[in-house]
Description:
Elements: E1 18-21, E2 24-28, H1 33-42, E3 45-46, H2 58-63, E4 67-68, E5 71-72, E6 77-84, E7 89-94, H3 95-98, H4 106-109, E8 113-121, E9 123-124, H5 127-141, E10 148-152, H6 162-172, H7 183-189, E11 196-197, E12 200-202, E13 209-212, H8 218-236
Antiparallel strand pairs: 1-2, 2-8, 3-9, 4-5, 6-7, 6-8, 10-13, 11-12, 12-13
Amino acid sequence: xxxxxxxxxxxxxxxxxxxxxxxxxxxxxxxxxxxxxxxxxxxxxxxxxxxxxxxxxxxxxxxxxxxxxxxxxxxxxxxxxxxxxxxxxxxxxxxxxxxxxxxxxxxxxxxxxxxxxxxxxxxxxxxxxxxxxxxxxxxxxxxxxxxxxxxxxxxxxxxxxxxxxxxxxxxxxxxxxxxxxxxxxxxxxxxxxxxxxxxxxxxxxxxxxxxxxxxxxxxxxxxxxxxxxxxxxxxxxxxxxxx
Length: 243
């Protein structure tokens, strides 16, 4: 949000009920994603564990196709109910119509489609294994930046240059997942770890986190993001895109 505020009306989605029917889970858009994940675990149904620890609501997670560690919410969504702001009609979008892609969906591309609820198709699982998986995810998240930030800022790009892919895999001793390389790696390679603009800084711990050191304005963060994108483009030939 701009430092000048927002000249308009902000409506908070308060609908937050969650229900299960066998291996299906349905939740309204205002439900906290963490509560949705916990509900699935309590019912012994698996498929949402990798989303443990992601902040925000289910509606926002559907819109941005939230995910982590190679798993996205769109992988398990079966249908989404929306209100079309132009026609004021309720519409149901099955997964194929949702156009889920990496951190994207038809709802993100069309703000007039307001997510009201979603249903996910999961599978019966071992409650103990589900809890172990969630504990592992939480442990991984413990290594991430704990400062004031909005989380990962840029989407992970898919480079065209095989030399870059080879360098990344050799240095990090991992194989590219879905041909993507973490945005933080490019930012670090460009020498931007710890870069500051005003009160905003590229995290020393995780380069894809832009953090507020305590006095950052919205413009500080935007200016830092613009500068990071410019330098990465010039040095690495990669165009970073905000999540």
